[in-house]
Design a protein that fits this description.
alpha+beta; eight-stranded antiparallel beta sheet
Length: 878
Amino acid sequence: LNFDLTRIKSKLPGKATLYLHGKNDLSKMKLVSVSTVSSPWVEGSGLGKGPGENGAGATAHWASYKQQRWIENDPQSELIDVSFGLGNSFWKFEQVRHLDNNWIAINIPQQIIAALNAGASYGIALMEEKGQTEINYQIYSRESTGNEPYLVVEESEQSNTAQLKPLKRLVAKPAPDLATLQTGAIQVQFNAPAGGAVAYRVTIKADDETLPLERYLIPFPKPAGTRQQIELAGIKPEQRVQFSIVSVDGAGNESVPVKVSAKSSSAFPVPASLAVVNKDVKRNGPLTVGSTVRIWAYDGDTKAHPVSGNLLEEVGYSAYAGQSAGNYRQGNDVWTGKTVEIAGCRNEYVTFHLCIEALKGLSNGKILLGDFNSPKNEKLDLQFSQIYRDWYVKDGEWMPEIALPLSHSFSIPAKDNNISRQKNQSFLVELYIPHKTASGLYKGNIFLKADGIDGIKIPVKLTVWNFSLPDSFSFNVELNAYNWEANDRDYFRLARVHRATLNVLPYLQEGIVKPGAAPEIKGAGANTRIIDWTAYDKRYSALFDGSAFRDLPGGSTPLQVQYLPLHENWPALFHENIQFKSSRKEYREWLVDIALNAPSIEKAFSQNYEDAFIAVTRQFVEHFDKKGWNDTKMQFYLNNKRSFTKGKLGWWNLDEPQNTDDVLALRYFGLLFKKGVGKSHSSQFVFRCDISRPQFTRHLLDNICDQMYVSIVFFNKNNLCQQMMRRGIQFFQYGSANRINMSNLTAVLWPMRSYIYGAEGVLPWNSFNKDDSFHQPRSTSLLISGKPVGLETVVASLRLKALRRGEQDIEYLQLLEKKKGYNRLQVRNLILRALSFQSKVVTKDSGEFEDAGMISFENVDARRLSDMRRAIAKVLTE
């Protein structure tokens, strides 16, 4: 809404009331928020007209449809970015008052009316705050004569003649942290003045041009003496800019201007392009043995069809199962036609696929790794190297999906996999390069034996580069799981081998803590005490001190993260402590009743509930400090959704909040957790929130949420996420692992794309599935029980191995950053130039809740990734 304020100009506004008339029933409207708007907008006609036509106006994403963004030059911006706390806007909750004849009255805070009068807001924005009722309220607009909205403003009794005080301690300086590769930035700091200022008016002068500063860059005044700042980014590097700032009161009176000038920061240097040299691909054809067997190798993260032998990434899905096509058999980035050529550094896993084509079948086949030796006769330690047989799952077409340890002989076609007309069988060769390995060239062989084949030798050349990947992970590939079966130690160990962290939710959505997932407690309220840590320590201690992994690559490095058992029903029971219960039985009626009649969450719980939560949290911190478990980030995470618990654990969506009440509930629990954790401790306890739309959290979770896991919106709203990172929130990008019928290069590039845009990790929303993953395409199965095929071990999806490849690539980037002094922005520029990958978001309609989404990459092949690694390795070894 916007109003003509001519009648109150030069007057100090006091109490203000907005009156609205409902086109439909407004009787259930209870709570709204009222906000300033920090960007100008065009009202439009509401007739759906486009650019250039009379009436093209504001939409959610356009201040003027396809003509003016809500924030200049920011295609990600939308209305929410300049209202309700974002874009230096001011907002407040207000109760709705119901009048006769379906009219309602809403108090408009004096600060908002004063901002309007001072020219510091482009109208008023309203948001109905009980969206969980799904009632779509409609109000009459200004064209509805007799029903139009109107605003009543009373004049303040205060005098408007007081002299406004100017700003104090005004300084300006370059702001290099806000620079880009093309632009510089300036930060202005000052003390808020005394004397009734409600807004600032700022003009900037650069290159002899004076312009008003955009409102969304200017904060509202805080209490006198408070240090405030203005950040001006996106300007010419090393440009002198003069700022002139005046204080403005609610009547529009101005203080004398205060001026300051400074040069903007330099832009960050554009990093030199990686010297990517396309590896010379020799195409000497597949290795042919008589007229029955042909052998070739290809990249470990690509897929060959078990009948046609076609490479998915070369011919595309439509031709994947068709007639033999393409030339990967003749030669590619790892195969010369006679020799496998691969490279890696110390503490890295390098992989490639070996494809055996048996035109007339093959039985009793065996593949063995021979020794690898350098010219100095240094031997590669093969303790953690292994060969796997690709297990195929039909997802439209047959796709290699599971890596089965090759512990027995094999046949083609594989009787257990039951693929009609199978001629090709791929094997994943996985070589681990230990820390102690000397750099240089190592030569080895892979041997194939089978009935009728005395022995075939496939030469392998491995170049070991002179640097090492760290044992701890610079980027967390976090494998979320819900099934308690996945808590078996073997699953954690398999995740570690793949440079990933398994995180198993320790409670059910019914509020039941799983066996051994929490210590034993006794008492109530502030007297709640943990009386026995035995079961908890038995389950977790080896994970927290790293001893569970001491015999694996990386040694005794503890887990990166792990969930705490804290949630709505532990340590205090929800139903015994909640102080509001609805009698409605039908879900929708219950939800409306709750939304309209339940108290705020701060008033909904007993004091005993809060005291017990704080007390037990504090005892967890003390226990971890005593044990010295300081390396694992212990996450307080709330997973429940109201439609799952049906009121048993509350009426909020705490995972992927949809409404303001949900965010306020997260805030409430987060504050309890922070009180329990306190400030003096050596262990790491963090509040994690999984958020679909971070823009709608406003600033409610600032200084409360430590880690924010964000869906695909992390990329769509990355500018906002970057701002939130500067406020201290770590970001992680969650989604679905790629579908089985997609290229696994997607799993390689997902971590990299997330990393260069600021994320500290990625999380497949589920990584363990009890269903038959050997015969059904389960994109959520990354860690898989081998029991259905007679194995006692846990096995990995090939997609998990591709995620490891992506994490290792990020370790390359981290080493490059340290050596060259690059920041994340420079690395993003470097990688986008080197790969130029094109991506798109793939989602599906999932009913009530949004699909987490996944990213599909369409124009990057394995060779380009290999070329990039070699180019980085060259820099690191110079």
